[in-house]
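Good morning,

Attaching, inline, the backbone tokens for the sequence recovery test we're adding to the shared suite. The designed sequence is right after.
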């Protein structure tokens, strides 16, 4: 089960877990979202679990919950690069939408 896998790296918005044959990058902001399909992620070209979120207009959008990076093709450091890019994006979004009072 994915919950029991060892955590190799973690940030505010992600976990990198150690699967048998894959590094698994999990988006913490999508925790609890139901997996609707598992298919290729178009941007990273790896297998991904996807769910559906709906905006204020009720329009559904596919989002990735977790990515599966094959260990024979990706080093942990490369997965960490993707994780840190996601971390940076979410941090910038949080600062834009929820600025702290100085």
């Amino acid at each position: 089960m994915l919950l029991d896998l060892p955590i190799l790296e973690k940030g505010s918005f992600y976990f990198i877990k150690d699967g048998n044959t894959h590094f698994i990058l999990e988006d913490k902001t999508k925790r609890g979202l139901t997996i609707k399909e598992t298919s290729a992620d178009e941007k990273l070209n790896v297998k991904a679990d996807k769910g559906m979120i709906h905006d204020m207009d009720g329009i559904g959008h596919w989002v990735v919950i977790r990515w599966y990076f094959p260990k024979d093709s990706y080093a942990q450091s490369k997965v960490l690069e993707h994780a840190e890019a996601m971390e940076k994006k979410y941090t910038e979004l949080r600062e834009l939408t929820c600025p702290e009072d100085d």
